[in-house]
Design goal:
By secondary structure, the protein is mainly beta. The protein has helices at about 5-15, 30-40, 45-50; strands at about 65-75, 80, 90-95, 100, 105-110, 115, 120-125, 130-135, 135-145, 145-150, 155-160, 160-165, 170-175, 180, 185-190, 195, 200-205, 210-220, 225-245, 250-255, 260-270, 275-280, 285-290, 300-310, 320-330, 340-350, 355-370, 385-390, 395-410. Helix content is about 10%, strand content about 60%.
């Protein structure tokens, strides 16, 4: 190592190491020695550590820097009885004409527009526009637009638009649009648009559009669209999804990933070719189906429909099927009312792991527009007797007959 390298290495060593000096006995300290003692506890590493731990926390509160005031009045933040110290004062009771800013609230706070608390809020908080709390909420928040909290909520949140919190919720959230937390909810979320719980929900989610809980739901979800992980309860909506469910999903289309799914090919007295999709659980499932006649004709006779059913177990490989459905029967385009409503009670025998045979009788009730003469012929391949045909007001007629269904299903 040359001389220059040695000098640089020595300088780096002393600049990155703590400097400690002690006066020798019998020698006087000079100003340089004193300065070295002062600097002996300072090092580059310690300074770096201090800088690395500095965080921007605008809502953090140090209890040692706060005081408690019984009552305060303010016009806007820092213009009131607490003056420029508003952010370091916790108020028991606070009245803010337009808006307030404090370290926290212990009993009651109200404002014409907004309330901002750096720390916790306990009690009741009312605002014309919004409430912002940096700590925990234990009580009631009521705001015209939104409530926003950076920790947990225990109590009730009411907002014209949204309730937002980054912590857990224990209580009730009621909002005109949405309730949101990335953590768990224990209680009730009610929203005009959507509810979101990032982990678990124990209670109920009720929304006009959507409810979302990706993990466990212990309770119920009621909305247009419901999404749950492991659901121990029920879902009620137009579209329901769950990974698994111990209860029952009720909706137009319900899909349980570990539930009941079949594709069915069958025949009945009206149409010889039918395909149906069943999805949900055996306790309650939805049916989407369509059928047609294999005719070489310009106007094909065909149908589409929807139904619901249940399939309780009778034996090791046998199940009972009870289903109610309605289908529109057409010739060519859909031009007039021609509904065939069915009640089916039959049996389902599982011949293999993914294959089952089914058969059973149906009772059919047809409602149709009798002023339209283009309805397709009902029975082309079977000789079925129509019973009790009646005419009703508004060009509506009805008739019923006994029929059958049979075929096989793939699981």
């Amino acid at each position: 190592m040359n001389t220059i390298s040695k000098i640089l290495a020595t300088a780096a060593f002393f600049s990155l190491s703590p400097v400690e000096t002690k006066a020798l006995s019998g020698h006087e300290e000079n100003p340089t020695d004193s300065l070295e003692k002062v600097d002996s506890k300072i090092s580059f590493h310690r300074i770096s550590e201090k800088i690395g731990t500095i965080k921007f926390q605008p809502f953090s509160v140090n209890p040692e820097d706060t005081t408690i005031v019984s009552v305060q009045f303010a016009f806007v933040p820092f213009v009131g009885t607490n003056g420029t110290q508003s952010g370091n004062i916790i108020n028991d009771v606070s009245f803010n004409l337009l808006g307030g800013y404090s370290a926290g609230t212990r009993a009651f706070e109200m404002a014409g527009l907004f309330n901002i608390n750096r720390g916790d809020m306990t009690g009741v908080q009312l605002a014309g526009l919004f409430n912002q709390v940096g700590g925990k909420v234990d009580g009631v928040q009521l705001a015209g637009l939104f409530n926003s909290n950076l920790q947990s909520v225990k109590g009730v949140q009411l907002a014209g638009l949204t309730n937002f919190t980054t912590g857990e919720v224990e209580g009730v959230q009621l909002a005109g649009l949405a309730n949101f937390t990335p953590k768990s909810v224990k209680g009730v979320q009610i929203a005009g648009l959507a509810n979101f719980s990032g982990k678990n929900t124990e209670g109920s989610q009720i929304a006009g559009l959507a409810n979302f809980t990706p993990h466990e739901v212990k309770g119920s979800q009621v909305g247009t669209f419901n999404f749950g992980g492991k659901v121990n309860g029920f879902q009620l909506g137009v579209i329901n999804y769950a990974d698994s469910m111990s209860g029952v999903p009720v909706g137009l289309i319900s899909f349980v990933r570990s539930g009941y799914h079949t594709v069915e090919f069958g025949v009945n007295e009206v149409l010889p070719l039918n395909i149906a999709l069943r999805t949900g659980k055996r306790e309650f499932y939805n049916i989407l189906f369509a059928g047609m006649r294999p005719e070489i004709n310009e106007d094909v006779t065909w149908s589409f429909g929807y139904g619901v059913g249940t399939s309780p177990r009778l034996g090791k490989k046998t199940f009972l099927n009870v289903e109610v459905s309605s289908e529109q029967l057409n010739k060519g385009e859909v031009q007039a009312l021609n509904l065939i409503n069915k009640l089916y009670v039959g049996g389902d025998y599982q011949v293999a792991k993914k294959l089952a045979l089914f058969a059973g009788p149906t009772i059919n009730f047809r409602v149709f527009d009798d002023s339209f003469d283009g309805h397709p012929e009902l029975f082309t391949y079977t000789k079925t007797q129509v019973r009790n045909e009646r005419a009703h007001p508004e060009n509506i007629s009805s008739q019923w007959w006994w029929g059958f269904r049979s075929g096989f299903r793939f699981f």
